């Protein structure tokens, strides 16, 4: 079974967070939603999300995929958290799948894993994404790093993670069930 870790911080884009978690769980992945602390997360439009666990309780090494939802304030909080940046580096160095959507590619950049790669992000933060070669594609795959543009690309993003984890048929089945 694939184990995915989805970190959340206040200001997260709720559509991205919920769509990522939902789509990955439809593929029968074990998804852990981790708050930076034990409190519920208040998303960008006031929706309250309750994480499965607080970051300190998470076994980072026990996960196969790290998927970062965006939202400007949420990404800023993830970028400011050394534990998250260390996790991004650990996953990348181990050759594990790492994904970031919307403003969250800035977290990957802050962790130093986008140098010399291609990536995309939300158009509102594109001028701040300076290390990778920028792309206007909705979803960009560069090795084991997947980036995407925003709420409207969240389904494609999550399905791409499923495909790259070795389950193209499962991604197709999930997309069919979602009528995508």
General description of the model:
The chain has one domain (3-177): Class I glutamine amidotransferase (GATase) domain (Rossmann fold). Helices cover 33% and strands 22% of the residues. It has helices at 14-26, 72-79, 82-93, 105-110, 154-164, 168-177; strands at 3-8, 30-35, 41-42, 48-49, 53-54, 65-68, 97-101, 118-119, 133-134, 139-142, 145-148. Strands 5-2-1-6-7-11-10 form a 7-stranded mixed β-sheet, with helices on both faces. A hairpin with a 2-residue loop joins strand 10 and strand 11 (145-148). Helix 1 runs parallel beside helix 5 (154-164). It is globular and about 35 Å long. The two termini are 24 Å apart.
Brief sketch in words of this structure:
The protein is of the alpha/beta class and 180 residues long.
Please describe the topology of this protein.
Layout lengths: L2 E6 L5 H13 L3 E6 L5 E2 L5 E2 L3 E2 L10 E4 L3 H8 L2 H12 L3 E5 L3 H6 L7 E2 L13 E2 L4 E4 L2 E4 L5 H11 L3 H10 L3
Parallel strand pairs: 1-2, 1-6, 2-5, 6-7, 7-11, 8-9
Antiparallel strand pairs: 3-4, 10-11
Helix pairs in contact: 1-5, 5-6
């Amino acid at each position: 079974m694939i184990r995915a870790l989805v970190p959340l911080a206040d200001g997260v884009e709720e559509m991205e967070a919920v769509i990522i978690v939902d789509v990955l769980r439809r593929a029968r992945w074990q998804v852990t939603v981790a708050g930076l602390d034990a409190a519920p997360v208040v998303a960008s439009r006031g929706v309250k999300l309750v994480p499965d666990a607080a970051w300190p309780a998470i076994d980072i090494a026990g996960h196969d995929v790290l998927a970062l939802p965006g939202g400007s304030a949420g990404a800023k909080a993830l970028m400011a958290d050394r534990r998250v940046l260390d996790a991004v580096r650990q996953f990348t160095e181990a050759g594990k799948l790492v994904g970031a959507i919307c403003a969250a590619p800035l977290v990957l950049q802050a962790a130093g894993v986008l140098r010399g790669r291609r990536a995309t992000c939300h158009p509102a933060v594109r001028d701040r994404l300076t290390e990778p070669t920028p792309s206007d594609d909705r979803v960009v795959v560069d090795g084991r790093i997947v980036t995407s543009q925003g709420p409207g690309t969240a389904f494609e993003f999550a399905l791409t993670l499923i495909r790259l984890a070795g389950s193209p048929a499962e991604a197709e089945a999930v997309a069919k069930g979602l009528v995508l």
